[in-house]
Design goal:
CATH architecture: 2-Layer Sandwich
CATH class: Alpha Beta
Oligomer: single chain
Radius of gyration: 15 Å
Strand content: 35-45%
Shape: elongated
Largest sheet: 4 strands, antiparallel
Strand order of the largest sheet: 1-2-6-3
Number of strands: 6
Order of helices and strands: HEHEHEEEE
Distance between the termini: 32 Å
Helix content: 25-40%
CATH topology: Alpha-Beta Plaits
Length: 95
């Protein structure tokens, strides 16, 4: 499996991202060490679309505790991908 196939972990489906899909913006959970160029190449290759821009956001995991034990959720990265006008990703479905 090439690195491009492992960059995108999952699509993010929320109320906000569903509204943004009407404008051609899609959100993905991606690898923490991926770059914008790698994300663009991965989306273009996997979904056969043209990507105009990529914006990323890093999230730190929250500290959680249950009784005396303390744990931490893992850090993660989100990518917003803007597609060229008129294109869409069919795998997301039309809502």
């Amino acid at each position: 499996m090439s690195r491009l196939h492992s960059i995108i972990s999952a699509p993010l489906i929320t109320e906000k991202t569903v509204e943004q899909q009407q404008e051609g913006k899609y959100a993905f959970k991606v690898r923490k060490d991926s770059t914008k160029v790698e994300i663009k190449e991965a989306v273009e290759k996997l979904f056969d679309v043209t990507v105009v821009s990529v914006n990323t956001a890093n999230y730190t995991g929250k500290t959680k505790r249950v009784g005396r034990s303390v744990g931490k959720r893992s850090d993660w990265k989100k990518a917003y991908v803007q597609l060229q006008d008129g294109e869409s990703i069919k795998e997301f479905g039309e809502l």
